[in-house]
Amino acid sequence: MESDRKPQLVHLVIALESVVLLALLVMLTPWGSRMTLSGNVAGTEAGRSGGSNGGDGGSGGGTAGEKNAAETSGGAGDQSGAGSQDSGSDESGGALQKDYIKWVDFSVTEEAMKKAFRCDIDTCLAEIHLNWIEILAYLGAKYGGDFSYYKESDVNTLAERLKAGEKIEDITADMKYYAYYLEAYTAVLGGMVGQFEVEIPGSQAPAFALPKDEAGNPVPTEEPVWVTKYGLKAFSPIAKNYPYTDYDDFGASRDYGYQRVHLGHDMMGQVGTPVIAVESGYVEAIGWNQYGGWRLGIRSFDGKRYYYYAHLRKNYPYHKSLKEGSVVQAGDVIGYLGRTGYSTKENTNNIDEAHLHFGLQLIFDESQKDSDHEIWIDCYELVKFLSSNRAETVKDQETKEYYRAYQMKDPAVPGGAAEQRIPADPS
Question: Is the pTM of this model over 0.70?
């Protein structure tokens, strides 16, 4: 019996060693390293947890980062929602890791955004002003980030409690992940609603905004007039009066260069369609990338959002005023829809169907910007929400360049931005 047991024991030890070795090898791979990251939000009030999406090589705005994003097949990070913590050393001399959000699944629906936005707008002059992002963060914590549970009555109930004088801090005190959703949703939506000045057609102007005669009476005019507004100051990526089609293609397969998934939102349209800056910011990347073709990367002023516009038009991809570092305002014309990309040779049309690839990357720490840990969100519902605000454009018949029809003064722009108008005829 003893002689039979020894070979069996040896075989068992060898088998266990093989399993351990295989596990170590897996952990050394990119997939395995992502498995070691913290899991999704668990134990939320809805009893559900969030998920993670993959990357897309055509999305990144930098150099290596554009390929790195594509190779990331997913990776749920520590979704604690806590603020950044500087690196340092613990008592044992080891380095402390920064504490910041490492993954966001943005599944907020157009319906929920519109309802929360309406609560915000309707109370902007009231004694108690409701904040639409706080409302959405409450819903995120309540539903565990899964907005298939959304009910308008949940917003109505919350709004009534807030209007009655309850504080959002007290209402959410027992919601473990409210802070996470507030930080995550603020990163997505933080620059989109607020006060701004804008031109509107004189025919639509209220009496107080019209020019006055000597007696102080309003004088009708066809010229644009300036008004101060509080509301949505972010725009659809596609200009007003230009058709496009789209569907939720986030995470779809892509295989140019290498197998990867799509981390953006494609909006199919006509070549030459004016492309619009969704939010005010500065041009961080401009030029050719083999995946995105002629592309633009615009960073929000708070640094949290990186907007990526790709596959722009051959020969004339950008508005002529733009260069790296240029400041743009929400609603400015920044480029033109096309089908460039999928080639190492610049100015090549290799995209079968003309479309704008629109992507939104969230950045909680600069180490995430161009890395294997980039955070790209599904923009489908967000684009539907923004479709209610599309910038009207006009064409300079002499240069064929497009400009915004009505100017805007966004207080988020440091020092103010230059107006985007058709240059006056020097003659």
Answer: yes
